[in-house]
Design brief:
With 119 residues, the protein is α/β, with parallel strands linked by helices. The protein is 35% helix and 21% strand. It has one domain: 3-Layer(aba) Sandwich (Rossmann fold), CATH 3.40.50. It contains four helices and five strands, in the order ββαβαβαβα. Strands 1-3-2-4-5 form a five-stranded parallel sheet, covered by helices on one side. β4, α3 and β5 form a beta-alpha-beta unit. The longest helix has 13 residues.
């Protein structure tokens, strides 16, 4: 498994250009989302870096770093309702995908499965 899960205040070292990982920031992630993704990653050969900004996360400097690093930002609208001001700002970015009720993709896992199917 080459999936990596990163939370504040951690940052990854400068990556090897030969080893390209898809970088995904999950905003307002919850434990069941992360657990499901981790189990999936154990069964597949994937190269993903998951930056996790959970409902109790408060390190906005780290979040800015994760936003810059991310190829895709998954905004989990179904979790706690925390970070609504942050979510509203991130929703405006082209690389953001809003999840939850009323959207095609409901959970972060839905996005990951879709990505793997397209590879």
């Amino acid at each position: 498994m080459t999936a990596r899960f990163i939370t504040a205040p951690d940052k990854l070292p400068i990556p090897d250009p030969e080893e390209k990982h898809t970088k995904i920031l999950i905003v307002d992630s919850n434990w069941s989302d992360i657990e499901s993704i981790a189990f999936l990653c154990m069964t597949k050969q994937v190269k993903y870096d998951f930056y996790l900004f959970g409902p109790t996360s408060i390190d906005l400097k780290w979040l800015d770093h994760a936003v810059e690093e991310a190829d895709t930002i998954l905004i989990n609208g179904t979790s706690t309702g925390r970070h609504n001001d942050i979510k509203e700002k991130l929703e405006k970015l082209k690389k953001s995908v809003v999840l939850g009720e009323g959207n095609i993709l409901k959970l972060p896992m839905d996005f990951i499965v879709k990505q793997l199917e397209e590879e």
